Amino acid sequence: MVGASLPTGAGIGLRFQHHERVLATRPRIAWLEVHTENYFGGGASARTLERVRVDYPISLHGVGLGLGNAEGIDMAHLGRVRDVVRRVDPGLVSEHLSWSSFGSAYLADLLPLPMTEEALELVCSHVDAAQDVLRRQVLIENPSTYLQFTHSTIAEWEFLSAVAQRTGCGILCDVNNVFVSATNHGWDAEEYIAQLPAGAVREIHLAGHAVRESSYGRRLLVDDHGSPVASPVWDLYETALTRFGPVPTLIEWDTNVPSLDVLIGEAEQASRRMARVHDTVVA
Amino acid sequence: MTPSLRELQRSFSCCLIDGHDAAVASWIEADGIAPPERVAVYRDTFLSTLHRALVLTFPAVRRLVGADFFEGVARIFAAEHPPTHADLNGYGEGFPSFLKRFAPAASLAYLPDVARLEWAVNRALHAEQPRSLVVAELDRVDAEEASRLRFIAHPSVSTLGSLYPVDVVWRAVLGEDDRALAELDLAAGPCHLIVERCRDEVDVSRLDETAWAVSSALFDGVPLGLVVERHAGTDVPAWLAAHLLAGRFASYTLVEKEALR
Fold it and tell me: Measured between alpha carbons, how far is A201 from A276 in angstroms, rounded to an integer?
């Protein structure tokens, strides 16, 4: 299996709003991540990516494969992912620990799985299929969740670790998602980080979240990627760096997308923390 | 009772689509927040993500009806017609005909056609980029076989006809050209359009009615012999040559003789 990777530094998600600026000014960013599905077609955005990838390592992040779909993954979709992978030759390819389709409907969200042996076997078989077709390692990201099923028997970090161990996939540890889910469900976020297999974590995501009041006054954190990284998430990021070592880190900000400078500022903050934790200068 | 994964996902998807959550709620830990409220977070993401996808594809429709009305109709459409694949750039094909049946929008008679134009533009924008058919490839076809030629349009190319000047409406709305909008004459008559991607830009241009009918037939895959027969008296070869030179076909096949009857 191809074990390509990204430079150990901070990247940002490349959004359409910033295509022109990035092409024109080539700002100093270690790498860029794009949503795989946005590049299925041809035209201007595909051309932009062709030009951008000359100067920046690229990570392909998928949102629609549905590794947890009970009815199977869409092989046509996987074929289109493979075509983008061939065109872009990315440093990393990632997807989510979630499901997203049933019957003929694509439900346009990263939906929560029950943490059961049945789901674990299914996800492993789909990760195997994806890695076979793509002929490379895929990273699986932990989701933000807003509910837990009563019949779940496995802790999420154990589930994720088991998938990595059984399939050889990597883990994309979204530190904001760990914080959001841990807060929502009363888990210990530090324990979550401590239990993940350090060697399997090959990328970190950071993002902002929103706070929603429920009708009984209990607050629910919602991962909306619409604001700066929150202060407790930066702290948890340092915990993660201490445990996983320096890992390529992405700033995700997809709703109310700010100026490129704001995004780069967040990435610089991540680089500074990486340098502080490891006492190395990150290029 | 513990549901199978398939059973759980079937109920959960029904719940996202039509809002019924009786079965799903019984499988969810309440933990201080009512299960339906937890599911509502996912339903909201489902509907708002699809609303956002439609905003990107139908900006002129949105300006014509206003953002609030658009959000309302987009969420109804999304729940009734969720996407069938995960490529959201390709979501919304049924939106124009949905608008046509949507009674609260009936006062804007040209609205569904503006939506059809925006769909054609979106299709052109995101179409894959296969190689175009070049004239020399047709050398393999004998002259007597030419009537059996069936062309396959480049995926970015389509034609569209409307009783209203929707191209003028579309340009004025997106260009925020208030003067053009004020001077808009909906009785100005029909328009016959070709929509395509030239290099990386989407181009919308008018054809005369005859050229449009011939071109539409060719892009729709009507065999050449039938196009010539149905449009007797028009210079079909001239239009065919123009489309070939402009790279508007991706490939061709030869149909059986029986298909020409």
Answer: 20
